[in-house]
Amino acid sequence: MRDRGETDQSIVATNPAHVIIEPVHYEWLPNILPTTSIPSNDTMDPYNKQKSPLRPLLVAAAAVFGLLFVAYKLFNSESPAVTVNKAIVILNGNSPVTGTVTFEQTSPDGPVKVTGEILGLSPNALRGFHVHQSGDLSGGCNTAGAHFNPYGKTHGAPADANRHVGDLGNIESNGSGEASFVFTDKLISLNGPISIIGRSVVVHAGTDDLGRGDNEESLRTGNAGARAACGVIGLA
Ligand SMILES: [Cu+2]
Ligand SMILES: [Zn+2]
């Protein structure tokens, strides 16, 4: 009995199945269970986006929005259009003539309203009144250049189709040598490529014949004579 019992115990202790099975059984169980149960848990995990089928769509949408934003910024980077509504000229020169002229334009393509108060003129006279090419008065009114003529026309009256843009005709003084006037002109502009801003206004010592003088100078200057006063057309 004693021998048998000892033999039985040694057999049990050295039984390979008994030794191996126990540790293997506990190691495999947790390895198998998680891998088979993870997929359902994974799709419900909001922080694990690596496996989300929406991820490529989100990336594509972000890229499209980014490109649209850049394109929008590029198209809107041009400077905003500024409309000039009013300009002013202070007239002075080598004569007793002084004055102030304002130009007003309510829309960039609309007519311009011209308002003036000029003193020191000959009494009851018509005096040539023009926009000249340049605002450079460094040499007095003589460096203001010719009549502003961006279309290469000949000199004329304000109502003529053929006229310099700068041809504003004559102003008329009263018995005290003062001229107060308001008129509108459709050709001059404070805006766009032929704006008169930065150019000059000249009041002449003589009368503008409006191109009807039947001579060459009439079609250039209207024979308006010397330049009595001038001023640069500035923003008001
Ligand atoms: Cu002139
Ligand atoms: Zn002219």
Automatic annotation (TrEMBL):
Residue span(s) of domain Superoxide dismutase copper/zinc binding: 97-233
Broad enzyme group: oxidoreductase
Cofactor note: Binds 1 zinc ion per subunit. Binds 1 copper ion per subunit.
E.C. number: 1.15.1.1
Molecular function terms from GO: copper ion binding; superoxide dismutase activity
Stored PROSITE patterns: SOD_CU_ZN_1, SOD_CU_ZN_2
Catalytic activity: 2 superoxide + 2 H(+) = H2O2 + O2
Segments traversing the membrane: 57-75
Keyword rRNA processing belongs to the record: no
Keyword Transport applies: no
Keywords: Antioxidant, Copper, Membrane, Metal-binding, Oxidoreductase, Transmembrane, Transmembrane helix, Zinc
Cofactor(s) required for function per UniProt: Zn(2+); Cu cation
InterPro entries: SOD-like_Cu/Zn_dom_sf, SOD_Cu/Zn_/chaperone, SOD_Cu/Zn_BS, SOD_Cu_Zn_dom
Family of this protein: Belongs to the Cu-Zn superoxide dismutase family.
Role: Destroys radicals which are normally produced within the cells and which are toxic to biological systems.
Protein name: Superoxide dismutase [Cu-Zn]
